[in-house]
């Protein structure tokens, strides 16, 4: 049999992930070719500013200013979209698919918002769209969910899926550093999104949860139905009080099957310190998947960064190369389930979700306040697991921290509103949801 020539890749983007992909593909070229069965060669690449100095070996790669040239070039078999954001990424990906090219992307925002359209078009053209790098950087979580756990009814998943948030919360816990200073570090290290508000406001994690939930439950991608909270309201005091109570605060994406639908939510969460996921720090991510047959499966690793993410991009390139000659009808489905079997299961509104809570209230240090607060909680059927009044000898307003048992969010919202009406309460009640993940 004649030896096949290299598979030619068109690279859109030479930033953190694009640069990492160039470096790792070059460094491990022999190993990767031995695994894929053919050499993988970046033939064309583009970026916004081709004159920007880059610490990359770009020998043998033709740099073109016009991204459309990359997706239109007949010699390119696979386009790697590593630009990020919506446009021009979306148009370039759709154009590449229309041109009959396979696509690899790290763009979770694009997949979460336009994946249904992109996969339908890819299916119609018989090409693959692979997106391992879009969730949890270097952790092969898509492959595990889509292939290794294919025999399971997935019951739930919970994950630290934003490296920047975990990096910031870990630094607040370990070093007591300032939020903005730690965020600047995450940006300098290439972890943060182009707009870091996507990270700290939970949007990036919601994009990833949208993808994971579709893979887990056979539902369409539906970013608009995810409940989203970021980490801006978390104070260093909350981190310390949580630790005193035996918990760590993690920003989690949670998807769970319950009797009347599916929970899809992203928010800061108190997790028992003994849970392995509570000890995942810095830019590391972790995803705990619970299958009915496999039981709990915990995957952890680097959630962002040039080479860790490149590892996933290249794994996708190898997968595509291996499948180039396979029957398009019999490939691994994009979202794990065959497209005609997707179900429209109801996604529960946050008010209907049941969880335990951490509450922090600032109260005037006077008799009877605690009794008023506990009465409001008990009137709504909310039972208290722990309560601590923190000493601030010099202050007239002192923090009280309460841990509750599980209760519907609707009842908790009602209780919080009533507590905030008490004259002895200063400001808003801070609330963080608690999950045992047991
Ligand atoms: P960067 O900002 O570092 O890189 C983006 C690249 O795209 C740059 O090379 C930029 O050019 C180029 N670019 C921007 N606009 C255009 C355009 N209009 N036409 C052509 N090229 C353009 O981003 P990242 O590498 O961090 O992220 C890329 C993708 O990977 C995003 O979807 C991100 O969410 C995802 N991702 C990122 C991870 C990370 O750790 N950073 C981890 C997992 C996923 P120039 O260099 O000239 O500015
Ligand atoms: N900004 C993302 C994060 C990159 O911090 O996790 C990885 O998707």
Identify the notable features of this structure and list them briefly.
elongated; binds L-homoserine; 17 strands; 438 residues; alpha/beta; 25% strand; 14 helices; Dihydrodipicolinate Reductase, domain 2; binds NADPH dihydro-nicotinamide-adenine-dinucleotide phosphate; six-stranded parallel beta sheet
What would you note in describing this structure?
This protein is α/β, with parallel strands linked by helices and 438 residues long. The chain folds into three domains: 7-138 and 307-341, Rossmann fold, CATH 3.40.50.720; 141-302, Dihydrodipicolinate Reductase, domain 2; 351-434, ACT domain (Alpha-Beta Plaits, 2-Layer Sandwich), CATH 3.30.70.260. The chain is built from 14 helices and 17 strands. The protein has helices at 16-27, 29-36, 67-72, 89-98, 108-125, 141-148, 163-174, 179-188, 197-200, 203-217, 236-244, 306-322, 369-379, 409-421, and strands at 7-12, 40-46, 62-63, 78-81, 102-105, 129-130, 154-160, 227-228, 247-258, 261-272, 284-291, 295-302, 354-364, 384-389, 397-404, 407-408, 425-434. Strands 7, 8, 9, 10, 11, 12, 13, 14, 15, 16 and 17 form an eleven-stranded mixed beta sheet that branches. Helix 4 runs parallel beside helix 5 (108-125). The model has no long low-confidence stretch (mean pLDDT 95). L-homoserine (HSE) is lined by residues 137, 162-164, 191-193, 199, 204, 303-304. The site of NADPH dihydro-nicotinamide-adenine-dinucleotide phosphate has 29 residues, from helix 1.
